[in-house]
Structures are given as structure tokens and as C-alpha cells.
């Protein structure tokens, strides 16, 4: 029973009602996006999908009727964006607070080479030589801006573009020549991708994977694979960094020690080699030789510019090799699974080349369907289905949901690139016609496919080189060969309707497969197209 005057009772009831309303309001205001409920301490660890996470998170959106969903792992909030609109609204329109990268104890505190920002199969990898040197993982600060400026200046200038395209063309010619005799199609595709980016960046033309600059990046990729299979608890529980090295099971110290040496080799090895070649006058044209020549000629440099440029070169080579390999695999698989698409692209090439020569970049605008094929390769299965994670630098709200400062933002690129409101029906199917207008010209207005390369100010600076390279590799292979008879490694035939499970990793590769190549132009035409070194 409540005692007091009527006036006091009214005041008390009113105050209670006000507090209840405020409580409900605050609860609504600070409600994070929906998602699985999770468990104390470990959060949603047991909800992490074991395969093709991008599809599972899109299903969460359907289940909770929200294109933005969330989960929590060891106290960290993860916000997953499953639509183009959410990605546009947050990562692009609000890029001033959504352009930083997640913090990693493995990197920042331990100064090691490889770290993990997330557990299990939602993993991002970070490199560091006493500080993060990969542009993609730098925070949105002045240091990142300097690196990005140098990348654009040195790789995207008109002068650089001419040299870059020449190297990509020559790497493509070397590829189709090797394919005349090699049965290791997978190995040749890998070598071609590395050949192109290593030539563009440093002017070095590898003839096998025994080249030292390829071997060191191969070791780096081994670390990638090792990290991608699990996670480092030190990033979940930072206090573990203080544990002594001799305790069993603490691999992060060992990985860090090994990684530091590899990082130095990746960043400094090729740069020093081109320095020597420039000094001797033997260096070929490349981004590195052009920059080093300007340094040796006494051109004025900004403080720290040389070190930053050394990082930029290593970024271009290391990131470009793996992603280009992945894109080439996807292209070859798509052509083998869709012979009708392959024939249509080859017809466009034949109409222009007339069986008299190999393609070059001057043919780009004359073969619009091939540009559509390349667009569809990047859309059909994005190389990085979750792009690279972002992190919020202040509290924010979206569609009535609270997004806390420090939340890790996971853009589901796969979901966005399979949005039927953007790309038309049956987005699960490989169909380049979605990029072609009725008059046969390429639909450049369908620019949402650019989001396969990242978002806003954090979009991949190497996307132009990537597209140019894959276009030339595709044009050269389709001119020279029919890509037929796709099978899995057990010899079972693959078709367009075969279920394909792509690897659940930051860079997502197709399942292993085999194809046959049938030459469709004279061998002499392929031989004559070899670059004269």
C-alpha cells in the first residue's frame, strides 16, 4: 500500500511512469541490430558458419527481417551489412566515421607480422614491420593518405598506365605460349598472375616459382593459410601477450618472429634489387625503376616518401598476386561451365581479330561483351566476399539501431553483388548479359560491381590494374584456346548446375577443378606473339 497525500501519490505515479518511459526509450535507442542471442562471455562463437559465411549471414537478414544484423564475440560487437543500401549509407555516405580498421593486439602491441582480427572463418589478416605497412589495413589517418596518394600517383598516371598494360599484355602472351606444352594449367595461371604484377611493379619477369621473390611470398601465403584455419587468442584476450614464450601452445610468438623476417624480405628485397639495376643501367621499365631513378637523379622527396613508396610497391605486388590468381581461376571455371558464354565472347574476338593477330588493349572498346564477361567474373563470386572489415570511430545509429564506437563492420560484398534489384534476376547464375544494353554496348552505368573492390575512401587502389590484367588474360586465352571438359579432382564432370563450395576465407578460392584446353588458332600465331625481351 502506498502512503501519502493524493498530490504525492500523483507525483509518485507520474515519476514512475516517466522513469519507465525513459527506460523503454533508452532501451530502444541502444538496441543493436538483431542477430542470434549468443552466450555469456563467448557471445556468438558457436553461431559462426562453418562454410560460405556470406550466404549464412544473408539468411540471418531474412530470418530477422533486417539488412543489418549483428553478433558479439568475446565482448566485441560485429555489425554485418547485407545490402547495397546499408553499405552505401554507412561506408560511403558516413565514411568519415567508418573508414578505420579493427585493432589487433597481435600487430600493434606485439609488433608481429600476421595477426587475426576475428575468430574462426571471419578472418582478416594484418602485416606489420613495427607498424602496419599494408595500406588496406592502415587507419584513416595521414599516414594512410600518404601511401594511397603515392599508389595513385605512381601506378595510375598516364605514363604508368602505358607501362602497366604492356607488362600485362606480355605476361598474357607468355601464358598462352606456355599452355601450348604444359598440362599444369593451374600452375600456369598462378605463374601468369604473379608474372604480371611482379613485372608491373618491379620489372622482373619470373620463369618459375623458384624465383626468390616468388618463394618469399609463397611462404607468406602459407602463413595466411595457417592463420585462416583458426585464430590467435591473443587478439581476443590481449593479456595473453604477457605470457612467456616457453609455455606450450603459444604459437603467436613463433609466427611473429618468422613473419618479421618474411616481411622485411617482401618489402626490401625486390626494392634493393631494382636499386642495383637502376645504378647499373640494366633496370627495365616498371613502377619501381621509374621511382628509384627519380630518387637517384636527385628529385626532391617529401619526408618519409621513400620508405612509404617501398611499402606501396610491396603492397601492390603481395596483394595483387593472390587476388589475380583467384580471379583467373574464377574466369577459367566460369568459361568451362558456360560454353555458350565462352563461344559468344570468342565470336566477339574473332570478329575483330579475324584470325590474323592476338588481342591488345586497343581492342577493348571493340569487344564490349568481353568487358561484360570480366565484370561478371568479379560479380559472380567476389574475390573477397566480405571485403575488408571497417571499424566505427564514434557511436552512430542506423534504422533505429545503435552502432557503438569500436564496432567491427563487416560488409557482405557477396550479398550486395547478388542483389536482384541491382543486377536483375537469377544473380546466382553466371550471365554477362546483365551488363549489356539492348544495342550490344556495355552498361557502364551498372557501377555497383565496383563494390567488389571495396567502399568509399577505402576502395582498393589497385582495381584498375586488376581489371586491365584480367581482361587481357581473358582475351588472350579465349583467342588461343577453347576451355572445355571441367571436372573435379576425382574426374567427375562439372556443369553449370553443379554445387560449388568456395573456400571460407578472406580471399575465397573456387573448389579445385581441372579443364582441358584445345588450341583454336595456329601455333605459329601464338609463338609469333611472344614478346621480344
TrEMBL record:
GO terms for molecular function: heme binding; iron ion binding; monooxygenase activity; oxidoreductase activity, acting on paired donors, with incorporation or reduction of molecular oxygen. Its cofactor is heme. The keyword Iron applies. InterPro entries: Cyt_P450 (IPR001128), Cyt_P450_CS (IPR017972), Cyt_P450_E_grp-I (IPR002401), Cyt_P450_sf (IPR036396), Cytochrome_P450_fung (IPR050364). It comes from the Eukaryota. The chain crosses the membrane at residues 6-25, 110-136. CDD domains: CYP64-like. Pathway: Secondary metabolite biosynthesis. Keywords: Heme, Iron, Membrane, Metal-binding, Monooxygenase, Oxidoreductase, Transmembrane, Transmembrane helix. Heme binds at residue 460. Belongs to the cytochrome P450 family. This is Cytochrome P450. The lineage of its organism: Eukaryota, Fungi, Dikarya, Basidiomycota, Agaricomycotina.
Amino acid at each position: 500500500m502506498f502512503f501519502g497525500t493524493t498530490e504525492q501519490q500523483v507525483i509518485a505515479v507520474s515519476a514512475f511512469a516517466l522513469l519507465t518511459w525513459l527506460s523503454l526509450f533508452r532501451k530502444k535507442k541502444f538496441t543493436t541490430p538483431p542477430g542470434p542471442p549468443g552466450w555469456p562471455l563467448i557471445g556468438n562463437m558457436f553461431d559462426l558458419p562453418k562454410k560460405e559465411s556470406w550466404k549464412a549471414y544473408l539468411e540471418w537478414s531474412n530470418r530477422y527481417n533486417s539488412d543489418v544484423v549483428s553478433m558479439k564475440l568475446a565482448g566485441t560487437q560485429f555489425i554485418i551489412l547485407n545490402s547495397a543500401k546499408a553499405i552505401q549509407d554507412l561506408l560511403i555516405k558516413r565514411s568519415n566515421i567508418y573508414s578505420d580498421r579493427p585493432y589487433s593486439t597481435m600487430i600493434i602491441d606485439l609488433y608481429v607480422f600476421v595477426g587475426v582480427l576475428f575468430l574462426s572463418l571471419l578472418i582478416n589478416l594484418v602485416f606489420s614491420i613495427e607498424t602496419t605497412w599494408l595500406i588496406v589495413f592502415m587507419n584513416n589517418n595521414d599516414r594512410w593518405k600518404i601511401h594511397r596518394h603515392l599508389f595513385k600517383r605512381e601506378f595510375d598516371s598516364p605514363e604508368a598506365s602505358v607501362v602497366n598494360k604492356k607488362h600485362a599484355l606480355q605476361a598474357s602472351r607468355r601464358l598462352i605460349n606456355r599452355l601450348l606444352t604444359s598440362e599444369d594449367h593451374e600452375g600456369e595461371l598462378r605463374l601468369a598472375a604473379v608474372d604480371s604484377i611482379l613485372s608491373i611493379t618491379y620489372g622482373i619477369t619470373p620463369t618459375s616459382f623458384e624465383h626468390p621473390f616468388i618463394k618469399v611470398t609463397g611462404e607468406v601465403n602459407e602463413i595466411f593459410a595457417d592463420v585462416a584455419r583458426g585464430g590467435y587468442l591473443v587478439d581476443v584476450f590481449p593479456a595473453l601477450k604477457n605470457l612467456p614464450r616457453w609455455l606450450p601452445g603459444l604459437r603467436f610468438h613463433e609466427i611473429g618472429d618468422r613473419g618479421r623476417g618474411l616481411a622485411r624480405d617482401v618489402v626490401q628485397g625486390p626494392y634493393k634489387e631494382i636499386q642495383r639495376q637502376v645504378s647499373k643501367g640494366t633496370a627495365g621499365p616498371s613502377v619501381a625503376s621509374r621511382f628509384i631513378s627519380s630518387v637517384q637523379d636527385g628529385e626532391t622527396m617529401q619526408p618519409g616518401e621513400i620508405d612509404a613508396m617501398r611499402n606501396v610497391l610491396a603492397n601492390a605486388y603481395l596483394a595483387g598476386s593472390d587476388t589475380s590468381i583467384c580471379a583467373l581461376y574464377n574466369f577459367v571455371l566460369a568459361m568451362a561451365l558456360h560454353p555458350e558464354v565462352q563461344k559468344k565472347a570468342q565470336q566477339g574476338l574473332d570478329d575483330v581479330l579475324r584470325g590474323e593477330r592476338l588481342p591488345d588493349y586497343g581492342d577493348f572498346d571493340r569487344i564490349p561483351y568481353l568487358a561484360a564477361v570480366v565484370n561478371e567474373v568479379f560479380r559472380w563470386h567476389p574475390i573477397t566476399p566480405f571485403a575488408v572489415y571497417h571499424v566505427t570511430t564514434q557511436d552512430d545509429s542506423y534504422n533505429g539501431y545503435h552502432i557503438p564506437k569500436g564496432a567491427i563492420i563487416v560488409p557482405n560484398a557477396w550479398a550486395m553483388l547478388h542483389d536482384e534489384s541491382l543486377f536483375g534476376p537469377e544473380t546466382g547464375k553466371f550471365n554477362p548479359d546483365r551488363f549489356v544494353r539492348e544495342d550490344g554496348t556495355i552498361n557502364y552505368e551498372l557501377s555497383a560491381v565496383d563494390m567488389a573492390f571495396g567502399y568509399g575512401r577505402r576502395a582498393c587502389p589497385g582495381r584498375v590494374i586488376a581489371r586491365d590484367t584480367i581482361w587481357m588474360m581473358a582475351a588472350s586465352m579465349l583467342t588461343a584456346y577453347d576451355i572445355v571438359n571441367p571436372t573435379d579432382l576425382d574426374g567427375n564432370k562439372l556443369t553449370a548446375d553443379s554445387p560449388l563450395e568456395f573456400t571460407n576465407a578472406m580471399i575465397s578460392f573456387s573448389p579445385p577443378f581441372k579443364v582441358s584446353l584445345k588450341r583454336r588458332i595456329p601455333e605459329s600465331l601464338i609463338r609469333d606473339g611472344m614478346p621480344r625481351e
